[in-house]
Amino acid sequence: MRRLKVFKSLVVDSLSVITHGSKKYHIWMGFLTFVMLIGMYCYSIQLDQGLSVTGMTDRVSWGLYISNFTFLVGVAAAAVMLVMPTYVLKDIDFKQAVLIGEGLAVAALIMCLAFVIADMGGPSVLWHMIPGIGVFNFPSSMLTWDVIVLNGYLFLNISIPFYILFRHYQGKEAKHNVYLPGALISVFWAVGIHLVTAFLYQGLQARPFWNNALLGPRFLASAFAAGPALIILVLAIIRSSTTFKIEDKTIKKIAMVVTVAAQVNLIMLISELFKEFYAPTHHSESAYYLFFGLHGKNALIPWIWTAISLNVVATFILTFHKLRNNLKVLYFACMILFIGIWIEKGFGLIVPGFIPGPYGKIVEYTPTAIEIGVTIGIWALGAFLFTILAKTAINIELGKLRYKSDN
């Protein structure tokens, strides 16, 4: 009964915290709410008229929604780069950042699930994915594996921080032997969610663009570059707008992770380009379409070359110690790296897998205003949830939010 009472008090206190704040905070939350309403309006049109209002067709059946889903799986998995050194290796430099990273993972995973629901057309078809009720096709279907690992990772990233914050809310230290097993599982689970997502694409025999043994490792490399890059940007905002201070050395340690991952990602990109273009076959047509266009169709050329340029510039900046240690330059490098990987892992990966089709027909894909509206609405939802989680966690960690017992 006491724990239930403490939990009720935590909920009440958290609601008080997230509904009060500075003028900038209320403007930010109001802006996100407005964008979410736009997304909901666009989604209502999609529910009413079906997926025909999107740019997707029977030729290109995955577009903006699945592109963002694939990218956000990597952002969620990146939290492990803070979990391992903090909980397992006991590196105190990461201690203040780890809860922010896990909050970001929770927001990313919820956005992943929202993008899947949007891509399926609507929530009314989700019952097909419920074991015992729908047709789950476990273990033969890679999609069912994806459902399991994503929901399992979401549970881990909610339960571990909640336990730690629940103890801190009561003025107690979290017990190491309670959360450590979950932290260890989450380390391997984070790798698993990205590998399973990669296997989902690799297992489609009629899509040679995805039949690449490097797809899984490159997913991980890009995830461990883009995810921590976003964490650095978020930490920069938090420490400039709150009293929750993040040490420079914490940001610089995370920057080292970003640097190594970005370098490995570029090396793998070069390897893929060599494989596609040194001795091309008819299976290289998707890559030719992506990088150079095919039969006069070239919609993705500006996107992919912009992405590669941003990746190269960001990696170049991060590689040099003097540039990386300048925080303003670091933030710029992280921003363009994040954008570059978002393009490369989205439009640069998903769409060209369908072009040309199995019979050689080229049908290009362009997202509609409805798709873009739903997409920005889901991103606003993620930012809204993360802001709520971060504000509550920061106040607990600063000691401003404490359980007041009757005694």
Automatic annotation (TrEMBL):
Keywords: Cell membrane, Membrane, Transmembrane, Transmembrane helix. Its main location: membrane. It is a multi-pass membrane protein. Gene3D superfamilies: Formate dehydrogenase/DMSO reductase domain. The chain crosses the membrane at residues 25-46, 66-85, 97-118, 147-166, 178-199, 219-238, 250-270, 300-320, 329-352, 372-394. It is found in: Cell membrane. It comes from the Bacteria. Signal peptide: none annotated. InterPro entries: DsrP-like, NrfD-like. Pfam families: NrfD (PF03916). Belongs to the NrfD family. This is Polysulfide reductase NrfD. It comes from Zhouia spongiae. The gene is nrfD.
